[in-house]
Amino acid sequence: MDSGGSGLRAVVGELGRPVSAPVASGEPVRTGARGIDAGHFMEQLVPMVRTLADEAGGVEWGTAVIGATGLASLGEELRDELPGALAREFGVRTVALVADAVTAYVGALGARPGAVVAAGTGLIAVGTDLTGWRRADGWGHLLGDCGGGAWIGRAGLEAALRAHDGRDGGSGPLLACAEKQFGPMPELPGKLYPRPDRPAVLASFAPRVAQCAPDDPVAAGILRAAARHMAESAAAVCPTAGEPQVALTGGLFRMGDPLLVPVHEELAKRLPHARPVAAAGDPLDGAVRIARDLAAGALTLPVDGVMVHVVSGAGRGDHF
Q: Is pTM, for the whole model, over 0.90?
């Protein structure tokens, strides 16, 4: 399972066979006083798994892996309640609760030493030498996520407002894009500040920055600054010994060369000993890889109780 800002995605499978097609909820799991809401998680998950179980036939589920956004800092309730709830509902014997940065890492690189930058609305870097995990950033749009979609979008809108005011550092092309997307600039604060989904709204402007970058030095400078932030985060978590791999994953990189070219240049400066590789898969692929390894008793990733939290019951089964 993969739980993120766009909702839940789940697949089921059996060792030695392909996994099912994914099903999705389309509704993000709520966050409460103790972090991610375990009850709301189960409300969404149960009908999804029952649908998948009906398609798979009568099976006993041996292993469940949940990759969840915010697990490291907001996962107290999930860690306390979800293993028991999954055991009662489906008879699951082994549960792994995994930070989404880790499932993104495993989806991209598998169980190899290296570093992964995961960038969408936010941004986090995670790395491992296979003895422990290191993370950098991922602190949300008010305190960090430097170089992520919301960061780029906010910087682009600031440049648009500077142009509107006649201040230095403004961008006429970004101003035109902002007015086309949001309307007159004096109305922007009223449209943005009351929104509960401010990070997503800010991130929605990031593609406009990439669109303007080839012909606008201000927009290009924003993407260059974002690339430096990404490389800094990657360097903070990447193993220093050997030849670790480094990969990029997440929807932000679909912006293409205006972002990818400076990111690769900055990574080469910061991590000359690392080997850049293309991400092999996404976070759901990473959750499946972890589930297969757990079900087979072959997990080699570091288990630290926070980034990777495993609760094992009696025995293990072939289905996950």
A: no
